[in-house]
């Protein structure tokens, strides 16, 4: 099998060729250049297994020392203690702008359970492969004369066979591999999830034995592996595997609180099962990270808010409790602020109420003002996942489609202060008052009035109303402003509470 059949990027071929053809002193010529690790695994998968996985993470291992690599590649960077030189390729492809070349190496002890205390250079690629995590990642392909042939595969630990058998197996002693680097505990689950592989029994046993080591790993590292797991097509299986192996309690212990917690007549699954099935639906639909996180975590507060048992059990205020728990959990795992805010917002409002014929156009405008037009699509996706996760066979009911119709109908109507025909400066000029609480209160009242009736959003009407409202006392203005805020929050007076009582969630 020649190189062009493997779809190797030209940048990688050029680097390998320069290493292989380097002129060395004392009559020696050329270094050995191998593709190693994940890219080899994915090349072989791409060649043999129809799972649509393409190779990336192009890493090269060589017997050249770092200073020798830098001598060959003048435009390179060497700023670490691990023998890795970053070669600048000038590629327009973001992933290929810098290619890492690493000298064959062996590693010392892993005191922090993540990074080796030190490294020493090895003589052969086989020694280098012996330090890697799993057999499917411990293979190398040598590029010779710009050709990469399958007979040049170096596979000392049976990685190719494990690929064929769809096994995740630790290199050598599994217990030692996980004791060296505890993040491998999650990586095993991640690869099993991404590739639809099984974890080999001894490796499985070692993960369960060493699960507690995950506490020593930086939260950011755990977060990154967790994201890869839930972004896989078999995300639900990945979470179940984390739970089975005793890892979930070190990642999202809040999720485990729903294990065995029964719901009511509208749910045939426990809270934990509901979360898993909701996530599974979003993965099947290839929805975004934020939607998947929300689907997995949206009912975290149910165990804490449950009242009663059986078909009549209630979960009063669970969406608020869930939002607070989700915020804390995502902050603990160092998720970016924008993702936390988005997911918390979706969790907070996933119980929105809409029924054809019950909610008016003004109600839809209040709904948009409350949740934000930019969040509607994702909220509907969460509603789909919530329904499937409850055991309902149909993900998208007619009323969801009708809501979209109503949103389209009112989408140009005013729903925020910015859409009013007057602004704060106009208001202060008309009333001759400085910036302060009264300005915000009056704008809030005006917005509520035009949400109720968009025809009132004219400069003439609003200026007249500003003059009228300006005559009110502070307590009177505060009372009207509070009423306007409450209307925005309740969506339609009484309807949301009615819905919650109907569906046993209050």
* Distinct helical segment count: 24
Distance between the termini: 65 Å
What is the C-level CATH assignment of the largest domain? Alpha Beta
Strand order of the largest sheet: 3-4-5-2-1-8-9
**Shape category:** elongated
CATH fold title of the largest domain = Beta Polymerase, domain 2
Unreliable stretches (pLDDT < 50, length at least 5) are 491-506
Structural class: alpha+beta
| Biggest sheet features | 7 strands, mixed
What does this structure look like?
The chain is an alpha+beta fold. Helices cover 49% and strands 9% of the residues. The strands form 4 sheets. It has a 7-stranded mixed β-sheet with strand order 3-4-5-2-1-8-9. The chain has a two-stranded antiparallel ribbon with strand order 6-7. Strand 8 and strand 9 form a beta hairpin. Helix 7 (184-195) packs antiparallel against helix 10. The chain is elongated and about 95 Å long. The model is unreliable at 491-506 (pLDDT under 50).
